[in-house]
Design the sequence.
């Protein structure tokens, strides 16, 4: 995914009201930008962090600039959650994601069969077997390279995982894909310490046949691109009190 023109740079002053952020861009007046992220943005919303933003020429937008990247202590972080789906769709269309290289793209925002809601993507193989994909944007990362999801309690994410499990139980292919828009992520895990119910749901879904994949990204001012597959560790990463049984 190319940025034309390249992203402009400033310094994050604050993120507030969920969807707004103020940046210092050297003009003496803070620039208010749209912040397209509903999560907690743990570790990537620290005041004083370098921040990159895009600009739109859409005159109908109240805030024509969009926060795209925050440079955290552990790496560059793509905070625009919509980019995760775009990056995965681009890679699938290019045939550059090996797990899905033998499937063709059918549609985005695919209705979940026999229930309400939508999956991010529907693919299909040569035999007509569907592959349902749900993408999650992973931005939480510690200093060891442990990336984890979610960064806040998300009942919606649990519903999506359970819906994937039902498609796998119906002998259809189902996949949960973590797009790690964080250059510091070396491995993908579940944030049980934040939302244990989600972790349990993912482990149950994986045991029932749902595939779990993770991919890391290259993040530059002129480009964000899926760069490599990442190892996935679904074990509970919480540290038990000393002497306690796990």
Sequence:
């Amino acid at each position: 995914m190319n940025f034309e023109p390249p992203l402009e740079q400033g310094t994050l002053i604050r993120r507030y009201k969920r969807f707004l952020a103020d940046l210092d861009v050297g003009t003496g007046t803070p620039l208010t930008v749209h912040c397209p992220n509903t999560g907690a943005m743990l570790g990537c919303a620290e005041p004083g962090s370098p921040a990159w933003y895009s600009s739109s020429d859409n005159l109908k937008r109240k805030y024509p600039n969009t926060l795209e990247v925050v440079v955290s202590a552990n790496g560059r972080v793509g905070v625009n959650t919509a980019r995760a789906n775009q990056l995965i769709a681009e890679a699938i269309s290019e045939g550059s994601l090996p797990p899905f290289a033998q499937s063709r793209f059918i549609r985005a925002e695919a209705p979940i069969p026999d229930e309400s809601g939508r999956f991010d993507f529907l693919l299909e193989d040569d035999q007509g077997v569907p592959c349902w994909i749900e993408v999650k944007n992973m931005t939480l990362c510690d200093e060891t390279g442990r990336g984890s999801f979610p960064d806040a309690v998300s009942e919606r994410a649990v519903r999506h995982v359970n819906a994937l499990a039902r498609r796998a139980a119906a002998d259809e292919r189902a996949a949960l894909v973590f797009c790690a828009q964080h250059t510091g992520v070396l491995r993908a895990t579940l944030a049980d310490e934040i939302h244990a119910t989600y972790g349990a749901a993912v482990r149950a879904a994986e045991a029932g046949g749902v595939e779990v994949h993770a991919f890391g990204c290259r993040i530059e001012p002129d480009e964000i691109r899926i760069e490599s597959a990442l190892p996935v560790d679904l074990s509970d990463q919480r540290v038990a009190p000393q002497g306690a049984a796990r």
Observations:
- The domain at 8-74 is CATH 2.40.50.580 (OB fold (Dihydrolipoamide Acetyltransferase, E2P)).
- The radius of gyration is 19 Å.
- The longest strand covers residues 211-220.
- The CA atoms of residues 16 and 22 lie 8 Å apart.
